[in-house]
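Thread title: Can someone regenerate the structure for this chain?

I was given the following input by a collaborator and told the matching structure tokens would be attached. They weren't. Posting the sequence so someone can regenerate them.
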Amino acid sequence: MLGTPLAPGGILNLGLIALLVLEWTRRLMVWVRHIGGPGLIVLGVVDNSAIPLPGSQDVLTIILAASQKTLWPYYAFMATVGAVIGGLITYQLAHREGKALLERRLSAKRARQVEDAFAKWGFGAVVIPAMLPPPLPMTPFLLAAGALQYSRGKFLAALAIGRAIRYTLLAFLAATYGRQILHSIFEYRGAILIAGIAAGVGVALYILLRYKLGKHPRHSHQT
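Best answer:
Regenerated them for you:
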């Protein structure tokens, strides 16, 4: 079955996609750092709606705020705006397609976990993950909020509050302890960037693989 994602041809295609995504992400990160605040909005939209890049928004917010200490509130605000716009895109997609999308994008166990979280915590099921740093994934909660038809107003408020707290704290700490933080980031920047990109690519490939398997279920063939 050479047409399936698990066949050699399918694996090669996924590998090529991974390389393209890695190169695209590297260029995106360089561009974001170059243009500053507006770039944080673009990265936030991509990270929260297209290709998750765990930790990338955090790292670049820290770098920018530490580099221009007096502008740390601006960078915190721009990072928050990007995250909220990206989160809203994901919410709208899931809201339109409903639970079917949640079941396609998440495992059955993970889907039950996020559904239980919303049933128990509601508003907190968005605001708490939005505040916490990686490796806690945010995408499942964004999808669940839309798929479960959670109030759009409450969703936006929770996401904005959580992200604002997170990025305000990061930017403030970067501006206050910038030299030490930047030294650590630049010392390990290769490992940090590769880990973030690899995690994002892994999530994207996992979603693609599940999508392809869903479109081409296995069938037994008699020779």
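Residues 34-45+54-191 form one domain.
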